[in-house]
Amino acid sequence: MSGICYVDGQYVAHGDAHVHMEDRGYQFSDGVYEVIAVYGGKLVDAGPHLDRLDRSMAELGITPPGSRSALEIILRETMRRNRLIHGSLYLQVTRGVARREHAYSDGMRSVLTVAPRRATPPVRSASLNGHRVISIPDIRWQRCDIKTVALLPNIMGKKQAALAGAAEAWMTDAEGMVTEGTSSNAWIVTQAGELITRQLDHGILPGITRRAIIAYARERQIKVVERAFSLDEAKQAREAFYTSATAILRPVVQIDDAKIGDGKVGPIAKALADVYFDALDNV
Ligand code: PDD
Q1: CA of 244 to the centre of ligand 1 (A)
Q2: Which neighbouring-strand residues pair with 251?
Q3: Residues flanking ligand 1, CB < 6 Å
Q4: With a threshold of 0.85, does the pTM exceed it?
Q5: Which tens digit of pLDDT belongs to each residue from 220-237?
Q6: Catalytic (active site) residue 147
Q7: Residue 1's pLDDT band (boundaries 50, 70, 90)?
Q8: Domains of the chain and any CATH numbers
């Protein structure tokens, strides 16, 4: 988009937002990121997103680009300069710039970039549309809990979904268990009415939207179980949906060739999307 980005200490026009070609993010995908939704001019769940960013940097030994409060000022200033009311901020921290060597030096000066993305405000009725997902093998590495910019399997999977006319691809591990979507967390509602999403482990990203939905569901006395579920179980579920900061909650009405439930958006998906939108109005 046009607009103002933040690049390593400076606010610059989108067309001038360049990084060095020996940035390790560019050469090795040696970096981490966050996508934080902006709703009504406010950041949604900024605290948990920045906590996750801290954790991703710590796991990879990337030096934080500054203090939490400095980062918050940069995010707010990027929103202000862009008059960003609805959309998201993409923030990325790479290990930094150095002559290309696989082994990195400790304590490199990291590079922070922030880009705004404008979007029409999310509408409640979007959560009433049913989406189709395909299943694909999960060919990612074994630390998918770290939000790194190394996303080749994810983008290949999402492209495959798009070519099949589907909205998302759900990945399955060697045991046939669903891990997550290429850019979202996966959920089902069993025939017994339990809400299931995979437990947090190294196989999935600890989604911030996932966390919020679990809390909202529990507040509403919906039984939530964090456990792995198989693709077969998902195909026999009463409902299915996926969540992310930008998609919020998307009901799934078909997985591969299997119709989910009665092929319509289910009541639990609808209710949870409603609760999420109500909470957004109060951020
Ligand atoms: N992706 N799993 C994966 C692999 C993701 O990339 C994402 C988010 C999620 C959901 O996490 P959250 O609820 O914190 O957004 C789960 C972002 C939106 C992206 O890459 O654009």
Answers
A1: 5
A2: 241
A3: 35, 154, 180, 183-185, 205, 207-210, 243-246
A4: yes
A5: 999 999 999 999 999 999
A6: yes
A7: low
A8: 4-118 (3.30.470.10), 124-280 (3.20.10.10)
